[in-house]
Design brief:
Blueprint: E1 4-9, H1 13-27, E2 48-55, H2 65-68, E3 91-92, H3 122-128, E4 133-136, H4 143-156, E5 159-162, H5 172-181, E6 184-186, H6 196-209, E7 213-223, H7 226-230, H8 238-249, E8 261-268, E9 275-285, E10 291-301, H9 302-323, E11 327-328, H10 330-336, H11 346-358
Parallel strand pairs: 1-2, 1-4, 2-3, 4-5, 5-6, 6-11, 7-8
Antiparallel strand pairs: 7-9, 9-10
Amino acid sequence: MGEIRVGIVGVGNCASSLLQGINYYTRKKNAVIGLMHYEICGYKAEDIQVVAAFDIDKRKVGKPLEDAIFASPNCTKVIEKRITRTGVVVSMGNVLDGVSHHMKDYPEERTFLVADKKPDKVAKILKDKRVEILINYLPVGSEEATRFYAECCLSSGVGLINCIPVFIASEKTWIKRFEKKGIPVVGDDVKSQIGATIIHRALAKLFNDRGVKIDRTYQLNTGGNTDFLNMLNRDRLISKKISKTEAVQSLLDIPIPPENIHIGPSDYVPWQKDNKVCFMRIEGRIFGDVPVNLELRLSVEDSPNSAGCMIDIIRCCKVARDRGIAGVLESVSAYTMKHPIKQFPDNIARKMVEEFIRGERER
């Protein structure tokens, strides 16, 4: 089917896991463990080629991409120690609001060190490198920076996968602009393969379907990567909390009152590194108004968990380009994102994606 030419904004842990994963599945030709789809319309993981990358950290900018993904403050689990040379050198991105002011208060090995360089011309690089799809891996709260890169996609004819909770693919004005330009967009705020949100959704749906009245629930997450460090600035969490809370509330017949539901990052624990630990509790009432309580602890490597979905999203986005489909991909967004344009139960969303892959559903 040919290659899928991808660009990445933010060469952090998620980008590292994605690139390592592509290398892993390319080397292990017939490996299927960890893939939701081994093949999508003829495209395999090995067909994904990262041809451009942007970052603002001086330890990454100007470096070969396959070296930059292992530079501090990246701390994700190493899947592949030797990465095939890509020929990609990390370009200087636009800082804008991509770095929270509080990050400067932490040791260098944990935080960003902004390079003293002028930003490269992003839209020109996207055109010159013939990028088809740009993945936004910016830190949570990068509202202005995300909009900047979305504009670059529009001006250069590049599809966008928005992995963070800045509302682009779930906002009608942006969707219309991507439709007008004839390019696809997927978002917003990527789900993990087996993460806190997808499990919380499944359990909330189970309680709801079995006639249980949910009175209260929380989801508290801790981690030690730069994502969790960045989110210590609570001002950057407004859209994140909206995204995660809506993902759970959307499956309930009667929403839980705001004071009785708390979903969001809780704290930064440096020694956890890229390991994310979720503590979840659901309190409800069953037959006869008798109480039932559920508690769960999930421990998972955060960035590979995200990459499991990303491999599918990239290929579906490429299929959309091949078919000339523009605007938001509703099925893919509903299945792989926390804040899609429209929420669906996960089993329905999965069916929608399968229909899209078979060509039975336009978007």
